[in-house]
């Protein structure tokens, strides 16, 4: 037994009795896995300290952090991946195709130093250099970012147990491909597998920056708190905004306070490249751009991306959640930093022209997180419900006196008023234009109307609240994500969506005459229901749909000359019947 | 002025015009108060619309009946045109008088043993059905959904089978609406489109969706 850099070793031998040759040698001590601290050369955060684990049997280190997570990875699907079975968050490489269906391999190191800080170039590094230092670098960033985010939730927001609040381990998988053998240009939290996935497809390679990782882990925390989900449509965007908001706070916490203490500062000194401006801090993913500063999203002015919205309107939830999130991001910015009364500034809101004072990051995030963990009870909560929750949270954490709003409560009201949700502090409710909900609509967003293409449809009846003049003007378009062109108005207030072979969505917009800032957008899903191509939609078109059901397992490979809906399914039928009945059976 | 015949004076022309207008008013057709229907005389290969005994003087129920020759089908759809200024396509009602759809399924194409969601391949009924009105056109259709042979065989049951249609396949209805003040006389009923799915749906010429002949009788308002 002897002392070595690895501790005590009891060396045992098997020796040939005739020749004296050592036939076998091993360490007879049963070593336990031991926590350690390694050093990583990250791509986005410089040289970082990494909590690792030294395996007792091999002596190798893995990127497994047992200092934070204390319970095993939940293994929600019961798969047999031994390298994921331990305690502590882990970072592993993804070394086969097809997204989540194949095996992963844990990174190991004999010396506990990781990565080389260089970007992973998919075209030349994959798969040859997957386990070389350049391949480890993405794991370094993912692991470090996860540690930072975990500590932020623990030290600032009082949630020491990570995503589920219980301390369950999570997995970060890097070098995830796009399912077709290419680099994935995305990252994600996968609730079904309790893990995060990172691709290499950004202009700078791996999407493992601190803000992206914090965004994804915050999706995980959200799924175990308010659990805003996609079925409520607006709630999907609010979920995304929640992740951007926490990601922004994590950056302030690490670049401003070095990850120490329990307060989120309002300024930073440690941002990479010296980019300590508020514009840089309040943007998402600038490190992924080649110029290092152009982000994918701007929280203070979401519309700078040309797709997102700065303010709420009825119908904003139709958009992709990464665009409908914009108003919530902006509301939180206003809550923290205030809004300008100078219309020429990007922090000005036409819905709160006098501007407002912010309450700072620390108060703002505490109010927001308290709302998400204690006030939001509906997973389909919309913007107005979130406003109510945030105001209630502010009232609870920073109560007013004598029936008056506290400054924090007033700021919460003003921040949402500045994105056109609710009244400002001491003010009146704005005019609100909205369209009715169709509860029988089979689509998630129940204001989208399925209608046969090229069949005239009566315009919907908008509700104009808080106004004496309830008249509206109509226009086409109104959504940046959808094609604004197409369709036409007819006499008698009817609207015709154009012919589209596979269907398409076409918006119409009703704007209040009393306040042109107020409008609502309705969407016609124009279904191409003329399956027999006679330029008419009728019940005989069902024949081609029904006919398609006989085309299973290639039993009838000959062409169906009547139908152009080959391969239809029950969704096709539901869409057909909904559109048919909307148009002809009301 | 010398002429071979006497010219009509201006007052005489005005009189003729006035008399013409007066003549028209005297001959206005009477407003109809009842409707009758004479069944068609189809060939054995034709489909037909025949009067159902439940019809009344103001509500005509027509049965869509398939060919008498026993040909099997998996569904039929039609588009029927009628003058909406004179008759209305009518809905059926449930036992409590609640309006239902513009057609009534007689159940020919439904294999009742398949009519539960746990035995159909997915959560759709075994027939696809639609009925509605677009201005002067009534559009109805009922088609078998088809079968997934492997699905059914795995459960030891048969898929939907084609049916002979020499009986009522579906019903439609027309109504005489007093508010229309329809004039008496014949009301054309025109089949604009009729398309059936044959027994063997195989994409060959014989197995394609077919145009079929639907004979319509004579509707008269009295």
Number of strands of chain B: 15
Return the domain count of chain A.
3
Beta-strand percent range of chain A: 15-25%
User: Whole-number average pLDDT of chain A?
Assistant: 86
Task: Write a brief structural summary.
The complex is a heterodimer of chains A (586) and B (222). Chain A has 586 residues and is of the alpha+beta class.
Main attributes of the structure:
heterodimer; A: 586 residues; alpha+beta; Elastase, domain 1; Neutral Protease, domain 2; six-stranded mixed sheet; five-stranded mixed sheet; 12 helices; B: 222 residues; mainly beta; Immunoglobulin-like; six-stranded antiparallel sheet; elongated; disordered N terminus
Characterization of the model:
Chain A is globular. The relative contact order of chain A is 0.07. Chain A is α+β, with helices and mostly antiparallel strands and 586 residues long. Chain A has twelve helices and 26 strands. Chain A folds into three domains: 34-224, Elastase, domain 1, CATH 3.10.170.10; 272-430, Orthogonal Bundle (Neutral Protease, domain 2); 433-584, no CATH class. The N and C termini of chain A lie far apart (89 Å). Chain A is 26% helix and 19% strand. With 222 residues, chain B is mainly β. In chain B, 10% of the residues lie in helices and 35% in strands. In chain B, the strands form three sheets. In chain B, strands 2, 3, 5, 6, 10 and 14 form a six-stranded mixed beta sheet that branches. In chain B, strands 4, 7, 8, 9, 12 and 13 form a six-stranded antiparallel beta sheet that branches. Chain B has a three-stranded antiparallel beta sheet with strand order 1-15-11, with no helix packed on it. Residues 1-25 and 115-124 of chain B have low confidence and may be disordered. Chain A binds chain B through residues 455, 532, 534, 536, 538-550, 552-553, 555-563, 569-570, 573-574, 576-577, 580-581, 583-585, and chain B through 74-75, 77-79, 101-102, 122-124, 127-134, 137, 139-141, 143-150, 193-197, 201-204, 207-209.
């Amino acid at each position: 037994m002897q002392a070595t850099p690895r501790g005590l070793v009891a060396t045992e031998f098997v020796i040939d009795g005739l020749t004296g040759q050592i036939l076998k040698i091993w360490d007879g001590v049963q070593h336990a896995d031991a926590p350690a601290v390694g050093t990583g050369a990250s791509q986005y955060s410089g040289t970082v300290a990494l909590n690792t684990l030294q395996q007792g049997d091999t002596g190798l280190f893995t990127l497994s952090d047992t200092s934070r997570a204390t319970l095993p990875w939940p293994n929600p699907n019961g798969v047999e991946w031994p390298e994921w079975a331990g305690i502590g968050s882990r970072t592993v490489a993804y070394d086969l195709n097809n997204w989540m269906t194949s095996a992963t391999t844990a990174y190991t190191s004999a010396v506990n130093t990781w990565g080389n800080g260089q970007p992973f170039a998919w075209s030349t590094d994959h798969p040859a250099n997957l386990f070389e230092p350049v391949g480890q670098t993405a794991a370094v960033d993912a692991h470090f970012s996860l540690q930072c985010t975990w500590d932020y939730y623990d030290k600032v927001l009082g949630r020491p147990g990570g995503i589920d609040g219980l301390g369950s381990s999570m997995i970060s998988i890097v070098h995830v491909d796009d399912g077709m053998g290419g680099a994935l240009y995305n990252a994600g939290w996968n609730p079904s597998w309790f893990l995060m996935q990172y691709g290499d497809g950004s202009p700078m390679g791996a999407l493992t920056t601190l803000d992206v990782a914090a965004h994804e882990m915050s999706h995980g925390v959200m799924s175990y708190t308010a659990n805003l989900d996609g079925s409520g449509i607006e709630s999907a965007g609010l979920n995304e905004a929640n992740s951007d908001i926490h990601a922004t706070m994590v950056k302030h916490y690490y670049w401003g306070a070095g990850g120490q203490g329990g307060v989120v500062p309002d300024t930073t000194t440690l941002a990479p490249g010296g980019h300590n401006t508020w514009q840089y801090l309040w943007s998402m993913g600038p490190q992924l751009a080649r110029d290092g500063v152009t982000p994918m999203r701007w929280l203070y002015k979401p519309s700078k991306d040309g797709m997102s919205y700065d303010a709420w309107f009825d119908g904003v939830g139709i958009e992709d959640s990464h665009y409908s999130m914009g108003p919530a991001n902006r509301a939180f910015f206003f809550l923290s930093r205030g809004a300008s009364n100078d219309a020429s500034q990007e922090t000005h809101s036409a819905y709160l022209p006098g501007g407002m004072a912010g309450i700072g990051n620390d108060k703002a995030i505490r109010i927001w997180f308290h709302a998400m963990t204690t006030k939001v009870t509906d997973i389909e909560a919309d913007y107005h419900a979130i406003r109510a929750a945030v105001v209630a949270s502010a009232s609870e954490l920073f109560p007013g006196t004598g029936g008056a709003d506290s400054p924090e409560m007033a700021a919460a009201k003003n921040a949402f008023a500045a994105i056109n949700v609710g009244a400002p502090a001491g003010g009146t409710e704005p005019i609100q234009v909205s369209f009715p909900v169709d509860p029988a609509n089979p689509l998630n967003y129940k204001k989208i109307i399925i209608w046969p293409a090229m069949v005239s449809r009566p315009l919907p009846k908008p509700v104009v609240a808080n106004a004496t003049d309830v008249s509206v003007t109509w226009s086409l378009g109104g959504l940046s994500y959808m094609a604004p062109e197409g369709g036409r108005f007819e006499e008698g207030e009817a609207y015709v969506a154009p012919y589209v072979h596979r269907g398409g969505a076409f918006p119409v917009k009703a704007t209040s005459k009393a306040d042109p800032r107020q409008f609502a957008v309705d969407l016609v899903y124009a279904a191409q229901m003329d399956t027999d191509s006679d330029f008419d939609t009728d019940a005989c078109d069902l024949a081609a749909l029904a006919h398609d059901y006989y085309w299973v397992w290639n039993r009838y490979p000959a062409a169906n000359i009547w139908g152009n809906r080959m391969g239809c399914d029950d969704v096709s039928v539901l869409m057909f019947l909904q559109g048919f009945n909307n148009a002809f059976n009301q | 002025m010398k002429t071979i015949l006497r010219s009509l004076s201006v007052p005489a022309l005005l009189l003729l015009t006035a008399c013409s207008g007066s003549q028209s008013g005297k001959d206005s057709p009477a407003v109809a108060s009842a409707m009758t229907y004479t069944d068609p005389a189809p060939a054995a290969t034709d489909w037909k619309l025949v009067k159902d005994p439940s019809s009344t003087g103001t509500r005509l129920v027509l049965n869509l009946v398939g060919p008498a020759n026993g040909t099997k089908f998996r569904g039929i759809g039609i588009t029927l045109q009628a003058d909406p200024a004179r008759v209305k396509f009518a809905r059926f009602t449930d036992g409590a008088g609640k309006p239902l759809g513009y057609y009534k399924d007689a159940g020919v194409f439904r294999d009742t043993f398949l009519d539960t969601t746990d035995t159909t391949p997915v959560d759709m009924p075994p027939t696809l059905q639609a009925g509605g009105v677009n201005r002067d056109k009534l559009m109805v259709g009922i088609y078998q959904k088809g079968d997934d042979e492997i699905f059914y065989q795995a459960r030891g049951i048969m898929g939907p089978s084609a049916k002979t249609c020499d009986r009522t396949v579906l019903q439609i209805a027309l109504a005489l609406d007093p508010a229309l003040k329809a004039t008496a006389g014949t009301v054309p009923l025109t089949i604009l489109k009729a398309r059936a799915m044959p027994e063997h749906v195989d994409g060959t010429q014989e197995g394609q969706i077919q145009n079929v002949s639907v004979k319509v009788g004579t509707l008269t308002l009295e």
